[in-house]
Write a structure and sequence with these properties.
It is built from 3 helices and no strands. The protein is mainly α. The chain has a domain of 34 residues. The chain is flat. Keywords: Membrane, Transmembrane, Transmembrane helix. This is DUF6587 family protein.
Length: 84
Amino acid sequence: MDAGLLAQYAVIALAVLVSAGFVAKRQFPGLVRRLRIAIALPMVREGRPPWLRRLGLRIAPPSRVIDAACGGCNSCGPSSPRQH
């Protein structure tokens, strides 16, 4: 196989993976969150090498902090109107 054709396939595969990740994050945020937790949890356990724990912390989703005073929607501040 030609090296140029192999590079073209690699770029297309990368574009497809990025697109699939974006769609999954937009359409299925709960599933993506659970998947990130499932991947990160074994990495951050005690006894793991420091580099693996740092990687697990980067993969882990941000914690959900619910502010009971305002209802807990976590979108503080005024929202800007959507442009169509």
